[in-house]
Amino acid sequence: MTTKLATMALGALMAAGPALADLVIPDLSYRTGPYAAGGIPFSDGYNDYFTLLNERDGGIGGVPVRMVECETGYNTEKGVECYESTKGEGALVYQPLSTGITYQLIPKVTADGIPLHTMGYGRTSAKNGDVFSHTFNYPANYWDGASGAINYLLEENGGDLSGKKIALVYHNSAYGKEPIRTLEELSKKHGFELAALPVDHPGQEQKSQWLQIRRDKPDYVLMWGWGVMNQVAVQEAANIRFPMENFIGIWWSGSENDVLPAGEAANGYKALTFHNVGTDFPVFDDIQKYVVDTGKAAGAGDQVGTVLYNRGLYAAMLASEAVKKAQEISGNADITPAEMRDGMEALEITEAKMVELGLPNFGPTFSVSCENHGGDALVGVTQWDAANKTWSLISEFKATDGDVIGALINEDSAAYAAENNIESRCN
Amino acid sequence: MFYREAGDFKTSYTDDSQTFPIKFDRYRYYVVLAVGFGIIPFIINDYWANALLLPFLIYAIAAIGLNILVGYCGQVSLGTGGFMAVGAYACYKLMTAFPDVSMFVHVFLAGGVTAIVGVLFGLPSLRIKGFYLAVATLAAQFFLVWLFNRVPWFYNYSASGQINAPERDVFGIIITGPNAPAWATYLFCLIFLAFCAIIARNLTRGTTGRSWMAIRDMDIAAEIIGVNPLKAKLTAFAVSSFFVGIAGALFFAVYLGAVEVGEVFGIQKSFLVLFMVIIGGLGSIFGSFAGAAFLVLLPVVLKVVGVDVLGWPTDIVAHLQLVIVGALIIMFLILEPHGLAQLWRVTKEKLRLWPFPH
């Protein structure tokens, strides 16, 4: 009973917080648990970019950004708690970096009128903005990833994959199961054979899956992994001497954490991406000057320039551009979540804009519309160089198979719309 | 002074055998009910419902269920997560197959389905005991999670393998889905909790409960004096699974709204509910409440104190939380091995004499 009273008092204290003019951006991060290796750099990048805007420009459009960090541990129950505890503060956009939490939040944010940005994860059919009014997944989604990987392999094989065997090693969860449907369609279209091998959470035990790969000898292995599963898979692939250049991971399986443990053996491993890698961009000078050197970097400050740090930075950049767009449309500097949603829907990222932000050629150019919340679906490929310990972009951002994906998205979103009685709102 | 039987006269056997024979206890119980049903629904908001009260109510139901099996009947079970998953998936299939039927019916039926599954997995308990039974129920846990991941029929062939609760109502009031008002979801779970607690309390005071306890205390002796072990053990499994199934159905439909079986109903859930029962007190209904409250509310309180009041980094608070909760569990078990319920009993004994102990 006393604990109950204590929480009650604290809850009241929290609810009575001051209401200043600021842009509240919650950061549902995970710096603990089996997925922390991916959660920390992303969150650091996300925080650092907003810190940079506050320090260098005094916020966005003159209004400072207030980050509210909440630890989810990649756990859906804690994710719900974080969402409920932060939404009352005027949160503008949620980026939970977890497909499981995304599925929880899609109906909730729609009811509460707060936009949700799931960049390269979450529910793929949310690309159909006609049905998913408050969910955005630009610039690319899992099905684009699946198609991007197959397109890359097509290119390598002179446009013909018939008779080839492709294995998919996936995290046995909503996240890992996402690409299967697209890959099945593509296997029909291009005539390759697909074998799906699930790996259970958290993914430390993959002996049997790789034994099967050694026995079946697929030509290529694709991977949908996250957290500790990635490094184990790369190590296992090295153990069975699977040629690394034929092993392609999704963008969540392509960071330094995933390949460093395997050392030299990981050389040549490939991963998909929807943004550029490295620190060779003008914005990193500003981050060094305004954020790192002043001691304001998030976390330990040692993640600057890693793949996932760049992804967090890119997510923050897209969010801040949407805030600018929203300020421009509404005319208010201190925008509401509803205005933020309109800003995201009108977002357009051009090369000129990225140059202006100090991020030339950092990501694909795309635009968002009412019907299309997923951008233009351009996917690139990176490769790991174990000797220099660097990732490099080996294939530019290229278009994916819109016919196959578009049909699947329409099918899945129509089912969701029918289940939840959602009416068409664009036109 | 506060707590005494003196002057509390009973004039009939019914009075004498009521649930709370001491007047103070009875009034406290009425006050709790009045606050729970009459005051909280009017002041509740989304944060309180979704972050604290719903998980507390639902875990309390699960803990009561497991307490019947472990605390009253002495059958160790590590399959709670799997049985909760049965409740959740049964509820999902019913909700999507019969959209017009009231949620009350769905949740009860989900409990019923889980009871049948529980009896099936309880059959080995007739031959094996103790740790061996724990291993058999552990197998149930893994098998059930695997089944729900493996067979697409259970999740209606959705692409991601997730189940999502569609919007359903009770007498026109929305209970599931994002538009459900906080007070409605809270009351819905509270009604189930009150129902389960009253049933459990009365079952454990009657013949059924006594036969469970006889089996728990010494099964051979119980058999000799005429307790049928088959009936006692299987009824314990059935009743326990019924409650756990209700908890699973509410957990999915009302609290989370979307569930991925491996993550939500994994082995950690089984351990969490077992810890609630052990910390709260084996063989005590109050203990189930106390254990659920302890393990649901304490992490949130620590988070609020650490992050919002003291302003510490979130990862440090998350790690400290593990340390503090772990240390408190060890401390409680050393100081009071019989759980929070025993602590409460001792307090009551003390209050009887206070302020004039001998």
TrEMBL record, chain A:
It holds the Pfam family Peripla_BP_6. It comes from the Bacteria. Residues 1-21 form the signal peptide. Keywords: Signal. CDD domains: PBP1_ABC_ligand_binding-like (cd06334). The keyword Signal applies. The keyword Transferase does not apply. Belongs to the leucine-binding protein family. This is Leucine-binding protein domain-containing protein.
TrEMBL record, chain B:
Keywords: Cell membrane, Membrane, Transmembrane, Transmembrane helix. It comes from the Bacteria. It is a multi-pass membrane protein. Signal peptide: none annotated. One of its GO terms (molecular function) is branched-chain amino acid transmembrane transporter activity. It is found in: Cell membrane. GO terms for cellular component: plasma membrane. Pfam families: BPD_transp_2. The keyword Transmembrane applies. The chain crosses the membrane at residues 27-44, 50-69, 76-95, 101-123, 130-148, 183-200, 236-259, 271-296, 316-335. This is Leucine/isoleucine/valine transporter permease subunit. It comes from Ruegeria meonggei.
